[in-house]
Design goal:
The chain has 152 residues and is an alpha+beta fold. It is built from three helices and seven strands, in the order βααββββββα. It has helices spanning 14-22, 27-30, 117-151, and strands spanning 2-11, 34-41, 50-55, 62-71, 75-81, 85-96, 99-110. β6 (85-96) and β7 form a beta hairpin.
Amino acid sequence: MTSVGVTQAFAGSVHEAESCWYDTSRWGHWVEGLAEVVSVEGRWPEVGASVTWRSGPAGRGRVRERVVSHEPLASQTVEVEDDSIRGRQIVAFVPTGDGVEVQLSLTYELRKRSPLTPLVDRLFIRRAMRASLRATLARFGAELATHRTILG
């Protein structure tokens, strides 16, 4: 399994960040590669709930995220599956003196393997995964700022 992660600090409270993160109707504004949320089943973001979404034409295809752990005002862990990977993604919200730090990590394994998979993962895929997480957090920050302006 390979792990990648990114962290970014934002203005706002843990509650504001969490509310924005879990609002699946807003995901199209900030989740990297997401074209459309297909379905939300259960009481998202609670344990057992799931979201299925699809990416644009050059993306990951159909992605399913199922909640395996949720601690309100702290973190959520989801099992993630698409045609290429399966893994676990964790988002954590940490209060800072003047805002909130959002930590996003993904531990994954590639579904299709060959003798070259470890090398390809280390040289290309891991870098692309980290860049995707970084882009998601950057776009999330912009969406959180908009969310705070609307509420505030």
